[in-house]
Amino acid sequence: MIPTCKSILTGIFCIGLCCSCLKTEISLQPADYKLIDSLYTMQKDSLATVLEADCEAFQDSVLSLWIDSIKQKREIEIQQLITKDNQDEN
Against a cut of 0.90, is the pTM above it? Predict the structure, then answer.
């Protein structure tokens, strides 16, 4: 089956369409940076309290689970070392 000119052109069009969608570049002007900075400065106090509350909630819910998981893994490793050491002595 020989590709026709129409199928070749359709393939090139599809590849070009996909590639053009992937190269989206956003560049901000100095005025945009200034606007973002001023918005952040105005809202940083209210954001700080919200972020602190979220961080504390995260620590309360997840941090203890992580610590328990690490302790459990270490206890397993210690037991394996003790078992291995006992087997080597026998």
Answer: no
Rounded to whole angstroms, how far apart are CA atoms 13 and 22? 15
* Cα–Cα distance for residue pair 41/50, rounded to 1 Å: 15
Please say whether the dihedral angle defined by the alpha carbons of residues 52, 57, 60 and 65, taken in this order, is positive or negative.
Answer: negative
pLDDT over 70 for what percent of the chain? 77
Q: Can you count the helices (H) and strands (E) in the chain?
A: 3, 0
The pLDDT assigned to 50 comes to 79
Q: Indicate left, alpha or beta for 22 from its phi (over 0: left) and psi (-120 to 50: alpha).
A: alpha
Indicate the residue type of 85: D
Distance CA(44)–CA(20), nearest Å, equals: 37
